[in-house]
Design brief:
With 327 residues, the chain is α+β, with helices and mostly antiparallel strands. Helices cover 35% and strands 21% of the residues. The strands form 3 sheets. Strands 7, 8, 9, 10, 11 and 12 form a 6-stranded antiparallel β-sheet that branches. A 3-stranded antiparallel β-sheet has the order 1-2-3, with no helix packed on it. The radius of gyration is 27 Å and the shape is elongated.
């Protein structure tokens, strides 16, 4: 089984504790964890959404009963006063499709009072629009208002003229972390930029691929600062970025430099092992072939110019030789 196949199997295993819903929440879907009474950024199939959820403890609970479906499945928690309300990914998508405002307490209160309407709409979506629950990272985008999670420290290396398939590179990054027992991933895109988040909490990694196959930059550092209570560390974060400056304040973080260096070394080796696997190689060959096909036509035009007395015999022979040397 190849690396990418192992990654796919690992991703399929996410959410197997409890009932598999159409969209299984995982820690990696929490792009930004807010404070008490602040919204958190949750990545759903439609893109990142600001939702008011309880940030205390585990932000995604693996096997709790959803207050709407009554199924045990991964959920986030909203505090209705002091009472915790657990909600699964399918219901979050349904509620938002019904235009409830989950960034406010009033929106949550209204949704909870209208559970019957929400469950009826959920049933219709499953039958009539099942694609609304499908997570397709190739279609997920973020706008200018979305702020990428911050790094605390950063290492970087630039790569030029290697013609790297950036989709392949994205899969390699996900695969590397999956083999390190961090299979949860979420991905967002914007133009030439791909943002990848691996895991969550202390084991969160952020990755940005920004640029073109022949011009991009790799940077790495911790995604999120966590105050250590005992022997432990904040996992390193990978960023492939085209000049984006990101920084954050450190408060008691313990950074494992060896893991950061190991990741950078792996990515560097894989890039050089696979240089030339990008789409621009095909384009260059096609352009070169087309250019060679044009040479006889160019020689004919030069011959016409010679016959018209515009070029001398010596000039014609010299230019013809230059063209023939390119074939």
């Amino acid at each position: 089984m190849g690396l990418f196949d192992k990654v796919q199997k690992s991703l399929e295993d996410i959410g197997k504790e409890g009932k598999n819903m159409n969209f299984n929440l995982s820690r990696s879907h929490i792009i930004k964890k807010g404070k008490i009474d602040e919204t958190s950024t949750v990545l759903l199939p439609s893109g990142p959404v600001e939702i008011l959820i309880n940030p205390s403890g585990k932000i995604v609970l693996e096997d709790r009963k959803c207050a709407f479906t009554k199924e045990k499945t991964p959920t986030v928690q909203h505090l209705m006063g002091w009472k915790p309300i657990h909600v699964c990914g399918d219901i979050l998508i349904t509620i938002l499709d019904m235009k409830y405002d989950l960034s406010s307490k009033n929106g949550w209160e209204r949704a909870f009072k209208e559970k019957t309407l929400i469950l009826e709409h959920y049933s219709r979506l499953e039958q009539d629009n099942p694609q609304i629950f499908v997570y397709d990272d190739s279609k997920l985008t973020f706008d200018d208002d979305f702020k990428l999670p911050r790094l605390e420290k950063e290492k970087s290396k630039s790569y030029l003229k290697l013609n790297i398939d950036l989709e392949w590179l994205k899969n390699e990054i996900v695969g590397y972390h999956s083999m390190k027992n961090h299979p949860e991933s979420s991905i967002l895109r914007k133009k030439d930029l791909i943002y990848i988040q691996i895991g969550g909490g202390r084991w969160a990694y952020g990755t940005i691929i920004d640029g073109t196959p022949n011009d991009f930059k790799v940077s790495t550092g911790p995604l999120k600062v966590v105050k250590a209570k005992s022997a432990g560390f904040v996992a390193s974060t990978a960023l492939l970025t085209g000049g984006i400056g990101i920084a954050a304040k450190s408060t008691g973080a313990i950074i494992d430099k060896k893991k950061t260096d190991a990741f950078m070394k792996y990515i560097d080796e894989r890039i050089y092992q696979n240089k030339g696997n990008g789409p621009e190689l095909v384009q260059n060959i096609s352009t070169e072939s087309k250019s060679e096909d044009d040479i006889p036509e160019k020689i004919k035009k030069l011959s016409d110019l010679k016959d018209q007395g515009i070029l001398t015999d010596e000039e014609f022979e010299a230019k013809k030789k230059d063209l023939l040397d390119k074939m």
